[in-house]
Design a protein that fits this description.
Elements lengths: L5 E5 L4 H17 L4 E6 L3 H10 L2 E4 L10 H25 L3 E4 L4 H11 L4 E5 L6 H6 L5 E4 L13 E3 L32 E6 L6 H13 L6 E6 L5 H11 L3 E4 L5 H5 L4 E4 L3 H10 L3 E3 L9 H11 L3 E3 L7 H12 L2 H13 L5 H10 L7
Parallel strand pairs: 1-2, 1-4, 2-3, 4-5, 5-6, 6-7, 8-9, 8-11, 9-10, 11-12, 12-13
Helix pairs in contact: 1-13, 3-4, 6-11, 9-12
């Protein structure tokens, strides 16, 4: 095993792609502290600020979704791919990576393809039960395919596939204060263990439909005493939801985004969330009962398939976004709050699906590049 390696992690933009990459980077740092890690992705503010928070270097390339459309759209997309490929070749030539890992998102395409052209060992990590178009295209070039689901569509019988689960961030692992930064805010310390704590989140960018349905559900609840709410709203809804809880005098912590979500999940008795693969993996390790509201516009409706796998095992409840109402959510929450046995059964079923060592397995595989064979 090498004591030191140069690794590029390509992709990101959303938390669903970015956080697994961060988890692998953390695991690689633990195995090989002197390794150099560079993230290559988009210039999105979320991606840049998140990687800065975690203390990882980042470079951006020009990239656009790989999609069809009119002839002009296809010509423009092809031109963008050529530009991003040239940018990627320049970055690879300067950084000299020993390995390139693609974590999905359209920015990973050119980087992994450039690595393949330069004969640099590569892998892709697919978080969902139905792969996105970028990873479907890259599967033919990558040396290894890491999957989070055993039945990942189109990849489950590929001899290059290794079913390892989804890498998750470790709690309390957020990069802390460095020169020029303000002091990190402490985690919540005023959670009453006797309260029923609900974590509400629509993912890294928030979800208006979940925010609206949940606040309506709270209004309709027979009893809000003993309820503690932790609500990640996204930037759009944060102000008026903070005011909503203040007006009703409900014990709630509201932020647009929580950086140390793994630690916050430990406080929850129930989570209401989208069905992104990263969220599912984090919750399964902890066995936190969940109500999943799959994002209806996810590519190939993969979040619905992710959630259905869990519902079929008795590990979660699924409500389609189109069916989500305040009244339905209120009834579902109150039924679970009053049924401790069902919550325990859901927790146990969820834990049975957990694969907590994906980050370590991927990191060790990367360090053992001699075993890949290119």
């Amino acid at each position: 095993m090498k004591n030191k390696i140069n690794l590029i992690i390509a992709g990101g933009k959303t938390g669903g792609h970015l956080f697994p990459g961060i988890a692998v980077a953390q695991a690689l740092n633990a195995e090989s502290p002197y390794s150099q890690i560079l993230f290559v992705g988009t210039g999105s503010p979320f991606e840049i600020s998140t990687l800065k928070t975690y203390g990882f270097a980042h470079k951006s390339i020009i990239s656009r979704p790989i999609k069809g459309g009119s002839i002009f759209t296809k010509i423009f997309s092809t031109a963008i791919i050529l530009v991003s490929l040239i940018q990627s070749l320049i970055i690879l030539a300067k950084f000299k990576p020993d390995f390139v890992l693609g974590v999905g998102g359209f920015s990973s395409f050119a980087v992994v393809l450039a690595a393949w052209m330069m004969r640099i060992p590569t892998a892709i990590q697919e978080q969902n039960s139905i792969p996105g178009i970028t990873n479907r295209l890259l599967a033919r070039f990558a040396n290894i395919i890491f999957t989070a689901f055993e039945t990942t569509k189109g990849m489950d019988r590929n001899p290059k596939t290794r079913y390892v689960g989804n890498p998750i961030r470790r709690k309390n692992s957020v990069h802390r204060k460095s020169p020029g930064q303000t002091k990190a805010k402490p985690l919540m310390t005023d959670v009453n263990p006797n309260d029923f704590t609900i974590l509400v989140t629509g993912g890294s960018q928030g979800a208006t439909s979940i925010n609206q349905a949940f606040t309506r559900a709270v209004k309709l609840m027979d009893k809000t005493q003993g309820l503690h709410i932790i609500h990640q709203t996204g930037t759009k809804d944060v102000s008026h939801i903070q005011e909503f809880y203040r007006h009703l005098k409900i014990n709630a912590k509201v932020h647009a985004f929580f950086h140390d979500m793994p630690a916050i999940q430990d406080m929850a008795d129930l989570v209401i969330t989208r069905a992104g693969a990263g969220t599912i993996s984090e919750l399964s390790i902890k066995g936190v009962p969940a109500i999943f509201v799959p994002y209806p516009h996810a590519a190939d409706d993969h979040q619905t398939y992710n959630a259905k796998i869990l519902a079929d095992k008795g590990a979660a409840i699924v409500i389609a976004d189109q069916d989500l109402t305040g009244n339905l959510l209120k009834e579902t929450i109150q039924a679970l709050r009053n049924d401790k046995k069902k919550l325990k059964k859901m927790s146990a079923a969820f834990k049975q699906l957990a694969m907590p060592d994906a980050d370590k397995i991927i990191a060790k595989t990367i360090l053992n590049t001699k075993d890949i064979g290119v």
